Amino acid sequence: MLRIVGLGKSYPGFKLSVSLEVGPGQTLALLGPSGSGKSTLLRLVAGLEIPEAGQVWLDEAELTLLAPEARRVGLVFQDYALFPHMSVWENIAFGLREARWEAYRMRERVAFLLELTHLGPHAHKRPDQLSGGERQRVALARALANNPRLLLLDEPLGALDLKLRQELLLELRAILRQIGVPTIVVTHDQSEAFAIAQQVALLKEGIVVQLGSPEQLFRQPKNPWVASFLGHRNLLSAEQSRQMGLPARPHLLPQEAITLGVGEEAVVRERVFKGFVVALELVWRGLGLYLEGPEQGLYPGDTTQIRVDWSRVVALEEEPTGRRDTINPLA
């Protein structure tokens, strides 16, 4: 188990302070906007930066003061950092040669990783002869070569186009499940974090705002900022909630709480075709609502009906500061 206890680092205008745990074989995603401290936290755990406070523990061993090479941590960066003059086989074997593995053990380990990452047919190619997805697999295989006790991935799919990212998401998830090593994945992509990780830590301005499973975060966001960051659009301020007969605190109207076609009158403000779904912006009771779903044949200016199941509305906490990042963006 990885334990991060009060780990701190400061820069002008920024302060990181984080405590987290990653269980054996578990994948934790660090999710948050740019500048929230995700990569800084990863570099502190890897030993690439020195913390000002706190400790990093792996099982019963403290890593805080150890050099990066003494931590047995596997690292994969966004640019992969492969050796361009080496073949795939040589890139994977590089760390094993440095660690003076016996030749037969090294061959067995590389063969296993080539099979794990589906790189066998490419073993003798150089990185410039590979696709982006293949280079990503080489970087992962190299990080796993020396049997790391911990795996750290910094935007591992960030350099790939959308189609390739989608293809590799489930493959990367399967590999992480198979190797059973505690893993931290840094990403700014919510769908990537939800697909890969069992737990997600949402960071904002150097602190963990909310931690939980993907389902917990999405269905029970802590406050309006979390809900908005995760893509929820139908947010009510405390005053709007009061006007709707709810307690005077922020609330989320999740999509599943809203039924289209029955109930009170609503007017279509905007329609956006998004391929598999159509997005509608509607005005209802003077509020703006956002809905995505199958084509309904509704266009701006049309009238429809809306019914809200108030039992499915989610109560949110007030923001910890006076600043409100989002309040019902369609109002």
Question: What are the defining features of this structure?
Answer:
single chain; 331 residues; alpha+beta; OB fold (Dihydrolipoamide Acetyltransferase, E2P); 2 domains; 6-stranded mixed beta sheet; 4-stranded antiparallel beta sheet; transport
The value of Rg in angstroms is 24 Å
Main β-sheet, spatial strand arrangement: 6-7-8-3-9-10
Principal-axes geometry comes out as globular
The number of helical segments is: 9
Please, could you describe this protein's structure?
The structure is a single chain. With 331 residues, the chain is an alpha+beta fold. The chain folds into 2 domains: 2-224, P-loop containing nucleotide triphosphate hydrolases (Rossmann fold, 3-Layer(aba) Sandwich); 234-315, Nucleic acid-binding proteins (OB fold (Dihydrolipoamide Acetyltransferase, E2P)). The chain is built from 9 helices and 17 strands. It has helices at 38-46, 88-98, 103-116, 132-144, 162-179, 190-196, 214-219, 224-229, 238-243; strands spanning 2-11, 14-22, 27-31, 53-58, 61-62, 73-76, 150-154, 183-187, 199-204, 207-212, 235-236, 251-252, 258-273, 278-284, 287-293, 303-308, 314-315. It has a 6-stranded mixed β-sheet, sandwiched between helices. The chain has a 4-stranded antiparallel β-sheet with strand order 2-1-4-5, with helices on one face. The protein has a 4-stranded antiparallel β-sheet with strand order 15-14-13-16, with no helix packed on it. Helix 2 packs parallel to helix 4. The longest helix has 18 residues, at 162-179. The chain is globular and about 75 Å long. The two termini are 46 Å apart. The model is unreliable at 322-331 (pLDDT under 50).
